[in-house]
Structures are given as structure tokens and as C-alpha cells.
UniProtKB/TrEMBL annotation:
It comes from Candidatus Desantisbacteria bacterium CG_4_10_14_0_8_um_filter_48_22. GO terms for biological process: methylation. This is Uncharacterized protein. Residues 1-26 form the signal peptide. Keywords: Signal. InterPro entries: DNA_methylase_N6_adenine_CS. PROSITE patterns: N6_MTASE, PROKAR_LIPOPROTEIN. GO terms for molecular function: methyltransferase activity; nucleic acid binding.
Amino acid sequence: MKTRTVVWLISLNILLCGFIACQSAAQVNVSVSGSFYLGIGNYYKVPQTQVVVVRGRGIPDDELPVVFFISSRARIRPETVVKLRLGGLSWMAISLRYGLGPDIYYFPADDAVLKNPPYGKAYGYYKNKPRRKWKEIVLGDDDIINLVNLRFVSEHYGYSPAEVVRLRSSGEKFGAIHSELKGGKNKSGKSKGKGKK
């Protein structure tokens, strides 16, 4: 009986330590990403808690701005967008379901900048079609994620699309780009302008 109690106490202690370690890791993750979520919330005018809830449903950080972009353009709840996305629809299919064409994703930027991956393909579609035929463009998920985040980071922090594209083409995720730009300084340490909506 005593052996059983000792084994049970040891097991309980191991579980408790594991729980505490998981809680600590979750708190670190939220604090690192928290300001990114706050930025998304501020830009799209939604509470940060709503951004965290959407993230908790399984939407990756780089795709969070897409949820709120489509939600605001289609005038539907973010939860509706999340449900459709988790149901297997592409971002383009969700957009088209609510009458949103690929033209809403276009964000003006210098042609020289947009030759860089991952933007060259998407901007090639826009550049090679007359504006009246933009509705024929079919963007992939990665194209939409990159274009929405380009708009979000450029407008929210007041950085040129060239700077955002440079960081993105070096392979950085948008959460890391946010962390780098949120302080209002570029790599040389010079202050940048504040963002605008």
C-alpha cells in the first residue's frame, strides 16, 4: 500500500512539474507574440483577446492578419472566416464566397522591389493584366498571406514596402518582422515614421 502511495505521489509530482513547464512555455510564447497580436488588434480594430482566440483555434501567426482582413472586407465575423479556413477552403475560395476578388489584395509598391520572392509571382499577375481583368487572377494561399501582411506591416508601422519585402525575402516570418519593426528603428538604428491606418 505504501509503495502504491509513493508511486502515485511521484507520478503526481511529475505531472505537476510538466504542467508548470508547459504553463511557463505558454506564457513566454504569449509574451513574445503578444505585441504582434496587439498590433493586429489595433490595425484591424479588434480586441487583442479576439486575435489570441483565433490563434488558439489553430490559425498560424502569419495567417492571422488574413482572417481579420477578409472579415473586415466581407463584413463578417472572424469566427466565420476561421470556420471556413479550418474546413479546408483556400483563402481565395473564402474571398470569392463573399464577392471579394483578387484585386483587394493588391498593394501598390515599386516594381523593382516586387521582383523579389515571395512577391514576384503575385505582382506579376497584376502587372501583366489590365486592371479590368484583375478578377481573373487566382492567388494561392502563400500569395494572399504575403500580400495581406505586406499591407498590414507597411501601413501599421509606416515602413516602405521595400523594407518589408527585403525582410520577408530573407525568410523572416511576419511575427519576427513585426518584432524588428515595432520599435520604430531600422537596422542602422535610424528612426522610422510611425504607422498610419
